[in-house]
UniProtKB/TrEMBL annotation:
Cofactor(s) recorded in Swiss-Prot or TrEMBL: pyridoxal 5'-phosphate; [4Fe-4S] cluster
Source organism of the structure: Haematobacter missouriensis
SUPFAM superfamilies per record: Radical SAM enzymes
Keyword annotations of the record: 4Fe-4S, Iron, Iron-sulfur, Isomerase, Metal-binding, Pyridoxal phosphate, S-adenosyl-L-methionine
Oxidoreductase as UniProt keyword: no
Lineage start: Bacteria, Pseudomonadati, Pseudomonadota, Alphaproteobacteria, Rhodobacterales
List of residues binding [4Fe-4S] cluster: C105, C109, C112
A single MF term (Gene Ontology): 4 iron, 4 sulfur cluster binding
Protein name in UniProt: Lysine 2,3-aminomutase
Modified-residue entries (N6-(pyridoxal phosphate)lysine), positions: K316
Stated family: Belongs to the radical SAM superfamily. KamA family.
Length: 366
């Protein structure tokens, strides 16, 4: 790798020149590159130069495994299209909408759940933004607008400022949330102009997508420090990825690194059923086992919720592990502690509850 890369790598020839794929692989990877875009920013290239861990490169460098499409895999695995009342908007839950302001990203992740959409249609036109915000304005139950894409932070600070001001003018919207990879893959974008744009009301929250502790370079930590210093609430989302972070040591380092940089771990996503991503997917049982192991190692505030976006657009739910099972008797439970020990627990009986609620005066006189 060049030590001070000046531009993004976007072609197989670029990857070959930088030694990220062997010369012999270019022909076999051509159909992958045709189907799904490639982009590694200079910051990603620098992070690759700083680590011998394969977990960063695997996220961005294409492999022929992406040509294997499994029967259960879908072009739109979380069902965005089924909940899109207006172009560029997903309204799945009553109190929040996703605004897909752009389909462009700084990087193209090999496991992306929107990989069939990103990199394609570009940015919403002014008319489309107008229509999407009119929809938000007409639905008073919408409390939160989530800007995603693509990656909304690829837009200029000026454009971001304009969009935020317009959302902030909708009285019932109290929270604007960014989902972005920019602080780790293009940290230089977090500059004074962007910070000024983000300082609006309602409260702006940034949810950082990061999957491996080696992504937390000094440059990335600097970008997060600037965001936190500007009063932006920071949370994270990560995807559980085979070969990248599917071991407890890597996840522990990832979550500790986030908390150290004032980012609250928020979600660990089970890898969605996007086409050509089966080689990244663990089983749910493996994910639950990892989360149970981490529960014994980390403070609760370092642990994200392990979630699955139910295929078809039915929403996101926590998928464990569960610590409570029903016991043999009504009202009895078996609770598992962080080390795997099992303990009985019994709910207060109804009659005791009723006696407590009625108080001593109500006790029968004998
Ligand atoms: S940055 Fe996000 S939206 Fe873009 S390719 Fe990666 S996972 Fe997908």
């Amino acid at each position: 790798m060049s030590s001070r890369p000046a531009r993004a790598l976007t072609t197989l020839a670029d990857l070959r020149r930088e030694g990220l794929i062997p010369d012999s692989a270019e022909a076999s990877l051509a159909p992958v590159a045709e189907a799904f875009r490639i982009r590694l920013t200079p910051a990603v290239q620098r992070s690759l130069g700083e680590t011998a861990e394969p977990g960063v490169a695997l996220q961005y460098v294409p492999t022929t495994a992406e040509l294997t499409i499994r029967p259960e895999e879908l072009a739109d695995p979380i069902g965005d299209a089924a909940h899109s009342p207006v172009k560029g908007l997903t309204h799945r839950y009553p109190d929040r909408v996703i605004l897909h302001i752009t389909q462009t990203c700084e990087v193209y992740c090999r496991f992306c759940f929107r990989r069939e959409a990103v990199g394609g249609a570009g940015t919403l036109t002014e008319t489309e933004v107008e229509a999407a915000l009119a929809y938000v304005g007409a639905h008073p139950a919408i409390w939160e607008v989530i800007l995603t894409g693509g990656d909304p932070m690829v837009l200029s600070a000026r454009r971001i400022g304009q969009i935020l001001s317009r959302i902030a003018a909708i009285p019932h919207v109290e929270i604007i949330r960014f989902h972005t990879r920019v602080p780790v893959v293009a940290p230089e974008r977090i500059d004074d102009a962007l910070l000024d744009a983000l300082r609006v009301r309602p409260q702006v929250m940034v949810v950082l997508h990061t999957n491996h502790p080696a992504e937390m370079t000094a440059e990335a930590a600097g970008a997060l420090s600037r965001l936190a210093g500007a009063g932006i609430v920071l949370r994270s989302q990560s995807v559980l990825l085979r070969g990248v972070n599917d071991d407890a040591d890597t996840l522990e380092a990832l979550f500790r690194g986030l908390v150290r940089n004032r980012v609250q771990p928020y979600y660990l996503h089970h890898c969605d059923l996007a086409r050509g991503t089966g080689h990244f997917r663990t089983t749910i049982a493996e994910g639950q086992r990892l989360m149970a192991e981490l529960r014994g190692r980390l403070s609760g505030h370092c642990l994200p919720t392990y979630v699955l976006d139910i295929p078809g657009g039915y929403g996101k739910v926590p998928i464990g592990p569960g610590y409570v099972a029903e016991g043999a008797e009504p009202g009895s439970h078996v609770v598992t502690d962080p080390k795997g020990g099992r303990h009985g627990y019994r709910d207060p009986s109804r009659s005791a509850e009723a006696a407590a609620a009625e108080g001593p005066e109500a006790s029968p006189v004998v």
